[in-house]
Amino acid sequence: MDKALASSLLGWWLEAGVDVPVGEAPRDWLRKGVSHDIEASAAVSHVAAEPGRTPIGSLDEYQAWLREGLDLPLFQAGAGRALPHGPAQAPLMIVSDLPERDGSGQGRPITGEAWTLTEKMLVAIGFTPGQVYVAALACFPAPAGRLDPQLAAECGNEIRRHIGLVAPKRLLLLGEGPAKALTGQGLVQARGKIHRVDHIPAVVTFHPRQLLSHPPHKAHAWRDLLLLMSEEVS
Fold it and tell me: pLDDT tens digits, residue range 109-124?
């Protein structure tokens, strides 16, 4: 069996809800209430398998996990992954909201017209797109279009780990998801101030998708970008 087929089969079982191949303790399958025991066992297995179980010591290893891992937040078997791009220790790291189900096959956190606008925003504050590290809050879109609290916490933990490995000088958080995950506030409340994410200065602004659908927000986004660049970094 080759690697691609094995990944596909494992992904199917994960989607079907199989969390553990063999239970550690004997179980009386005829006893009343056994279904509750199964759910409890699966919950314990899920907690034990939360982020941190995959040993990762470098950004290269983390990126390989994002490309191939089956235990990522919001993992969907067979779905394309929105993978990060850019250099380590970048002068700026963008954390984008969850990718869309656009079917473009581009495999990046921000694509299409939204990325074209992002490039213009970066040039306006003195960066070439190649200088900037770009990542999404998670590699996959949310199944129902929004995150429940548990998934939001998982994504927040992972993006913090990602940021720590990239070690950027500044952070630009695009959209509601990154704002809540990294500042604890929604987009509206988090805008207009400098936040610190593990001592890294961070600013929240609108995702380019929002700017394309509501052009008047571009003036607010420009002020957010100026605020970000006003912060001195070492």
Answer: 999 999 999 999 999 9
**10 CA to centre of own chain:** 22
Tell whether 127 is covered by a domain.
yes
Q: Taking the alpha carbons of 169, 198, 65, 82 in that order, is the dihedral positive or negative? A: negative
Looking at residue 19, what is its pLDDT? Answer: 46
C-alpha 156/C-alpha 150 separation (Å) is 10
pLDDT at position 104 = 55
Q: What pLDDT, on a 0 to 100 scale, did the predictor assign at position 35?
A: 35
Q: Kindly tell me if the per-residue pLDDT of 152 is higher than 50.
A: yes
Q: What count of residues does the chain have?
A: 234
Q: What is the pLDDT of residue 80?
A: 87
pLDDT in tens, 49-59: 344 445 678 99
Q: Single out the residue of 122, 136, 48 nearest to residue 91, CA to CA.
A: 122
Structure tokens at 36: 């509750």
Angle between helix 59-68 and helix 149-166 axes, rounded to 10 deg = 140
Within this chain, do residues 208 and 145 fall inside the same structural domain, yes or no? yes
The structural domain count of the chain equals: 2
- Cβ atoms of 168 and 200 closer than 8 Å: yes
Helix (H/G/I), strand (E/B), else coil: 92: strand
DSSP 98: P
User: How far separated are the first and last CA of the chain, in Å rounded?
Assistant: 51
- The domain that holds 226 is classified in CATH as 3.40.470.10
